[in-house]
Amino acid sequence: MAGEHGTEAAMPPAVPRLDAAEVLARLARGGWSWSWSAPRRAARWVLRSCDGPDGHGGVLTRAGDGSAASEASLRLTADVLDVARAAGVPAPRYELIAGIDDAHAVVQEQLVGSVPEEVGPGLVRAMLGECERWAGLLAERAEIGPVSLHLTESGPGFCGA
């Protein structure tokens, strides 16, 4: 892919496929008690469903690079989700952030929901209305900068092999 000035743009490495059994085994070695459950509708290469010690469901993700900075970023995300949820945004709670060598395991609350039967102007208006309702929610959080939507540059490689 040619860059803006004719140079080759470096593509970030693809996010590796999540090996849920391996991540859960690493968590078990660290004293965390989560177990594999039947796959639920999720992006196969990133998320897997799991059950907590009390049997409730969660969504397991392998995130970050295992560094302290990566963990701080994940904890900030968890904090932002807490703020959003308190304002009525249907956002999952992070139940666990645990270092597993070269990454972090994140278990988040599994939210219930369904795929809309019809995608049309009414749904889009409703979605935009919700966005307007929560506009400015993080305005007082100066430590949270704008998020790149990757409209002018490539984003991270989410399509792992």
What does this 3D model show about the protein?
The chain is α+β, with helices and mostly antiparallel strands. The protein has one domain (20-133): Phosphorylase Kinase, domain 1. It contains three helices and five strands. The chain has helices at residues 20-29, 68-86, 121-133, and strands at residues 35-36, 47-51, 57-63, 94-99, 104-109. The chain has a five-stranded antiparallel beta sheet with strand order 1-2-3-5-4, sandwiched between helices. It is globular.
Q: Largest sheet, if any?
A: 5 strands, antiparallel
Total strand segments: 5
Percent helix, as a range, is 25-40%
**In order across it, which strands form the biggest sheet?**
1-2-3-5-4
**Ends apart, CA distance between termini:** 20 Å
Q: Could you say what the CATH topology is called?
A: Phosphorylase Kinase, domain 1
SS element count, helices: 3
Question: Runs with pLDDT <50, length 5+?
Answer: 1-7, 40-47
Structural class: alpha+beta
Shape: globular
Strand composition percent: 15-25%
How much is the radius of gyration in Å?
18 Å
Integer average pLDDT:
76
Using the coordinates above, name the CATH class.
Alpha Beta
